[in-house]
Amino acid sequence: MYGFSYDGNLLHAEEIPLTDIAERFGTPCYVYSHTTLSSNWRAFKNGFAQRDVTICYSVKCNSNLAILSALAKLGSGFDIVSGGELQRVLKAGGNPRQTVFSGVGKSEDEIRLALKSGILSLNLESEAELARVQKVARELNSVAPISLRVNPDIDAVTHPHISTGLRESKFGIPIEDAVRIYRQAFTQDCLRTVGIAVHIGSQITSMAPILNALEIVIDLAEELQKDGMPIEYLDLGGGLGIQYQDEQPPEINEYCSEIIQLLERRNCDLKIAIEPGRAIAASAGIFLTTVEFIKNAETKNIAIVDGAMNDLLRPVLYDAWMEIVPVELDNGSDEAIYDVVGPVCESGDFLGKDRPLTIRQGDLVAVLNAGAYGAVMSSNYNTRPRSPEIIVSGDRLDIIRARESIDQMLELESIPEIYRNQSF
Ligand SMILES: *Cc1c(COP(=O)(O)O)cnc(C)c1O
Predict the structure, then answer these.
(1) 265 CB-contact burial (10 Å; exposed 0-12 / middle 13-18 / buried 19+)
(2) Average pLDDT rounded to a whole number, residues 118-139
(3) 34-75 per-position pLDDT tens digit
(4) Is residue 226 located within the same domain as residue 318?
(5) Do 264 and 355 share a structural domain?
């Protein structure tokens, strides 16, 4: 068995029943499938088979050291958005030479760390950032590999919070400024212009915006080539969506083959980098939680579970629909419609609304496709310790992040002497 599926009456993570995991580690917790994670990564690798491709897994969607280490073992590169993420990649055994650094506000310290580590490219998002990289590179007496992240003014047709390719967005350099800035960068000894980067958004469910963006960067690459400024590769970003509900995103192999076809049609033999996050990690994880109480409010039933918005923020942050299923299929109870909510004191604290479920107090439920933008977005709101993370591979199980303790949560806080003083 692979991934998350029912074996008889019980939902399993690969070969292990989720009831066993809950018993051992308690709930709420995140559970990942190693097999799903690696087969999603391999689908990208195989999809580009004949081409020279660097798969730069987007660290921000799930940055657990074990996840990064599993992907590094497969040969993955990484896309990072902070110095902290770079340190994770290095600690997990990732290759800095296959790592690109995105993000609109890189600090001097972060740029320094990136240059010293020898990363593949700093993907720059403004002229001010270009100037900062030049300054740091000169100070270090090194040559900074850079790409410009261009903003092609394309609507990714996704939730506004995760759309990044429109002119008004804070991301990227307007496409019409790109040639001028490349020219400026090209003359600097402390810079090496290695690529063109684009990333128009996340949870994209059709190929059209992705291919439109690719056409635009191929145009730009040709223009640069003509002007005597050849680049080495195109970085197409991430953004491929997954099916949470009834979306019909392209399959990974379809995504790859449509990109290859367009490159061939345009006679473009540049190397390719991609930065998939969600399409690799989302389906490799579930969020496991226990029904604490069932409340029959006047108009609808409410299931209060022990997992909350501090553990899984997507439902309230993006108004995201995530599938919720019972871990035990047939428990003899009748189906009813529930709002599944957490214990946090906010009306926005829900995991799902109007869900038909057969559940009783004490039952386990799983929120599916929670491997991306799940654990990484968790917080201590309401002084709730962050959930543990567990990875399963066949019948093997490893805990990869322990449940946080109250002491760990309070560790960095202190009470000034004056508040201890009676007379204050
Ligand atoms: C978030 C992000 C990604 C990954 O997006 P997914 O939708 O998870 O594939 C890739 N590149 C950049 C620059 C990003 O900000």
Answers:
(1) exposed
(2) 97
(3) 999 999 999 999 999 889 999 999 999 999 999 999 999 999
(4) no
(5) no
For 52, 75, 76, 253, the CA distances from 42, given in Å and listed in that order, are 14, 10, 10, 10
- The CATH number given to whatever domain includes residue 373 is 2.40.37.10
317 and 257: one domain?
A: no
Pocket test for ligand 1, best of 199, 243, 373, 376 (most atoms within 8 A of CB): 199
Residues with a catalytic annotation lie at 345
Same domain, 126 and 227: yes
What's the full length of the chain, in residues? 424
Residue 209's nearest CA partner among 259, 174, 252, 161 is: 259
Q: Which amino acids bring their CB within 6 angstroms of ligand 1?
A: 58, 60-61, 79, 102, 199, 202, 237-240, 275-279, 372
Q: What sign has the CA pseudo-torsion 359, 376, 241, 258?
A: negative
Question: Does any domain span residue 256?
Answer: yes
- Cα 231 to ligand 1 centroid, rounded to whole Å: 22
For residue 45, tell me if it sits in a domain.
no
Q: How many domains does the chain have?
A: 2
Task: State in Å: Cα 114 to ligand 1 middle.
Answer: 19
> Which residues span the domain enclosing 145?
103-274
Same domain, 180 and 292: no
Same domain, 154 and 255: yes
CB pairs under 8 A, 24+ apart, for 398-406?
398/66, 399/25, 400/32, 400/64, 400/65, 400/66, 400/67, 401/64, 401/375, 403/25, 403/26, 403/29, 404/380
Q: Is residue 324, in this structure, part of any structural domain at all? A: yes
Gap from CA of 56 to ligand 1 centroid (Å): 10
Among 246, 274, 302, give the residue marking a domain's end: 274
Give the pLDDT band (50/70/90) at residue 420: confident
The rounded distance, in Å, linking the Cα atoms of 202 and 206 is 11
- Residue ranges of alpha helices (H) inside 276-360 are 278-281, 314-317
Same domain assignment for residues 269 and 315: no
Measured from the Cα of 278, ligand 1's closest atom is 8
